[in-house]
Amino acid sequence: MGVGIHRYSSVAAFWHWLSAALVLTQFYTGYMFHQVFERGTPERTDMFAWHKTFGVLLLVVAILRVATRFFKPAPPIPQQLEAWERVGAKVSHLLLYGFILLIPLGGLVAISDRGPVELKGGITIPALPGVTEPIADFAGDAHETYVWWFAALLGVHLVAGLYHQSKRTAAAGRMWPFKGPANR
């Protein structure tokens, strides 16, 4: 007889994969404007504008994602997993949500001492009030540090997901489009 599987809702899966695409885009745009393009060049300015635009979009998606999770909680973590795996899943998901909110918010703080934030498409959003240059500098440093921590945690998340899928454990198939555990 097959094992019952509790999956994330289709809305949660949508936010998950949209967040993943935006995070990858942010890694790319952040790398390009920090490491590839020289300061003061039009290419760097353009890439930074894309980074800010996708960052604001990621923040909006992250807020919607958290709201979705509040109204439609995640499926229970399978009891068949080891205790350390269940704790690791809870802690890592909490940290992932924290980073996906704090990193774009920190980026917004980091540029809010410069006045209104200009995004692609002619969109301008107000700067966060009360941000001074020292606060912006601190937020910028934290933003960059948290990106590296987030990248490491995403690596763990990816490896854990691939492990559970390849072994078809009780955690397999919780997120679309993956298949559930093998029949036992």
UniProtKB/TrEMBL annotation:
One of its GO terms (cellular component) is plasma membrane. Residues 7-177 form the Cytochrome b561 bacterial/Ni-hydrogenase domain. GO terms for biological process: respiratory electron transport chain. Its cofactor is heme b. The chain crosses the membrane at residues 12-33, 53-71, 91-111, 146-164. It is found in: Cell membrane. It comes from the Bacteria. Keywords: Cell membrane, Electron transport, Heme, Iron, Membrane, Metal-binding, Transmembrane, Transmembrane helix, Transport. One of its GO terms (molecular function) is heme binding. It is a multi-pass membrane protein. Belongs to the cytochrome b561 family. This is Cytochrome b. It comes from Sphingomicrobium sediminis.
